[in-house]
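--- STAGE predict ---
source: upstream dedup step, 1 unique chain passed
mode: sequence only
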Amino acid sequence: MTAAAPPVPPGACAPTAAPAATALTLTPVSKVLKLCLHALLLGLLALAAGRAVADSAPRAGWVVAACVVLAAVYAAGVRAPAVHGSPRAGAVWLAGLGAAWAGLLLISPDGLWIAFPLYFLELHLLRLRWGVAAVAVTACAAIGGFLAHSSAATPGAFLGPLLGGAVAVATVLGYQALYRESERRRELIEELITTRADLAAAERGAGILAERERLAREIHDTLAQGLSSIQLLLRAAERALPEGAPALPHIAQAREAAQDNLAEARRFVRALTPPDLEHGSLAAALERLCAGMPGPRMRFSLSGRPRVLPTPYEVALLRIAQSALANVVRHARAGRAEITLTFMDASVTLDIVDDGHGFDPSSAASGSGDGGFGLPAMRSRAETLGGLFTVESAPGQGTAVAVTLPLPLEHLEHTDPVEAP
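--- STAGE serialize ---
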């Protein structure tokens, strides 16, 4: 069980990156805790040296020298760049500290106090299993040092170092658990923020597309249709007037103006076309849709002589195909699906067939069953343009969706066939 950052000795800054194969620290330590650990270890060393001098111990000079050596080794490790980023260097530094502490422990019983800060260093720099083993060795060394300087063995000689080691292990593990829980919460919050931003962007995009479709449909159904009707009326007026009538030039000029404005209205409609239709025909958009859909094998086929359709018709057929294929992917569990776009003299038909599990169309027609509102929405699109929408399915027999849209007369008179994609 390891933590998520490379080993950092107390007082050092964490490196920005470390090799994946290196040992990781048990848990990050805050700056305040590092400073407290520095103060604890240096204070205990000062106390041990001060007691030796104050008591005029026989080896007071050696005790002071050992404390200075231990403080120097500790300070060198804190400031050494190699210890900052290398687990092996950290282990070597701990070994040096242990050797210096063992020398102090041999000549002074006060060296026992240094065991407690060493516990935290070992747990911080080593993996958990090695850290616990090092704590146990340190505790045994502390007990041995005390017994070497004391003529009588007391329970405190054993309980003190052992309880200190247990408290250090429990403290580090508890801090680790709190840190990891905090990290999980932070990651969850970041994920929620990202998801919320994505959803907001998706909703804005969907709203923009829906508004573009609505505007295109309104322009086509009102301005374009009105201007087309004006053209037909002006043409009828031209035929009704006798040749050479004074009004004929004005009628011709009005008809040209209506034609120009109709072309401008159609340019507006094309500009508001959904992105899938901006770079090609409806057939090309359907072919890309089949190629980009996950799940079952999908194939697109074209029948009849293709022609340019009014934008509302292309939008409706594309949206119906998208919704039907989405249902195939989510619900049908089909192995294959096929879209067929058929151009006839006065109508266009779109068929979507799959070999999935099928369903009962009557239970989904009202939007109250498992089918949701997909089928009613498709039916509404088709019927808005005067078309016919049918669904044929049964449990275990696949599904066939068909929509037929009759083309308006004025469109048939003014459009030419186009090449298939």
